[in-house]
Specification:
Blueprint: H1 3-7, H2 12-15, E1 78-80, E2 82-83, E3 91-97, E4 102-112, E5 118-127, E6 133-139, E7 149-153, E8 159-167, E9 170-177, H3 179-187, E10 190-196, E11 202-208, H4 212-217, H5 223-255
Parallel strand pairs: 1-11
Antiparallel strand pairs: 2-4, 3-4, 4-5, 5-6, 6-9, 7-8, 7-10, 8-9, 10-11
Length: 269
């Protein structure tokens, strides 16, 4: 797997809940192509299973359906995303490619729907000594793959991207950009990521860019710190899951009626 595929799952269980933005249930998988050689990086946790997709609400053609944990696009196809709450800001991570001995850095962040469910991950790659920049995305399952994606900053020109592979966690897409595009991201307000659902309707994820420039130009996060953040996040997720399970079990027990036989009054002699 590439540096992105093998290392980006830093928020494992959160990003893994990829959902379908579609009017039909069920994933569509792309034909995988051989990714570049991986760079050295701490091992990431195994992705969790995706949320179960529910069929869309009938009678609303052209509007993506709502998954069990998902988001619904309005009639204009625009979906405004919010940063994943557990991440304080954009994160920059660097590593060395052993085959070329070049440093590879990516600046990344995860985004969620209004319901707080993860629907998109973005990573902008910078390889030392190369003018080309690579933009990579993790998108929901259930999209049309052949049209690929388009992405632009605010009202600027669009760049094209292609899907590389679909996994149970979502579909990976990438496109080539340059320093001019990165500079636009630093100064811009919104990154628009456009794709088509299974019935061919265009959906646009609107991604806030606040803090991107500071992270991109700043120092990278220590891989050991990143690994520790992963560990703490997984522990927090497990704690929340256990607490929710306990509440549900407690509520179920309280709702169960007392099956004891009522006392019978003893008649007076």
């Amino acid at each position: 797997m590439s540096f992105f595929f093998s290392s980006h799952w830093r928020w494992g269980a959160l990003t893994a809940a990829a959902i379908a933005v579609t009017t039909l249930a069920g994933p569509v998988c792309a034909q995988p192509k051989a990714p570049p050689k991986p760079a050295t990086h701490p091992a990431a946790p195994a992705p969790a299973a995706p949320a179960q997709v529910q069929p869309a609400t009938p009678g609303q053609p052209g509007v993506p359906g709502t998954a069990a944990t998902g988001a619904t696009a309005p009639d204009n196809g625009l979906v405004q995303l919010k940063p994943e709450p557990s991440q304080p800001d954009w994160v920059k991570v660097c590593g060395n490619d052993p085959s070329s001995n070049q440093q590879i850095c990516y600046t990344t962040r995860d985004f969620v729907s209004d319901q707080g469910q993860p629907v998109l991950a973005v990573a902008m790659y910078d390889v030392t000594g190369k003018p080309e920049k690579i933009s990579r995305f993790i998108l929901p399952l259930g999209l049309l793959l052949s049209p690929g994606i388009k992405f632009n900053i605010d009202q600027g020109p669009s760049a094209d991207g292609k899907f590389a592979i679909c996994l149970p966690n979502g579909c990976f897409a990438e496109g080539q950009t340059n320093e001019t595009f990165i500079n636009s991201m630093k100064k811009g307000t919104t990154l628009n990521v456009k794709f088509k659902n299974q019935v061919g309707n265009e959906i646009t994820f609107q991604v806030p860019l606040a803090g991107f420039g500071k992270a991109y130009d700043g120092a990278p996060l220590d891989p050991k710190v990143l690994e520790e953040q992963q560990k703490k996040l997984q522990e927090e997720l497990q704690k929340r899951s256990d607490e929710l399970r306990s509440k549900l079990q407690g509520g179920s027990a309280a709702a169960t009626p007392d099956q004891a036989t009522p006392a019978t009054a003893t008649p007076k002699q």
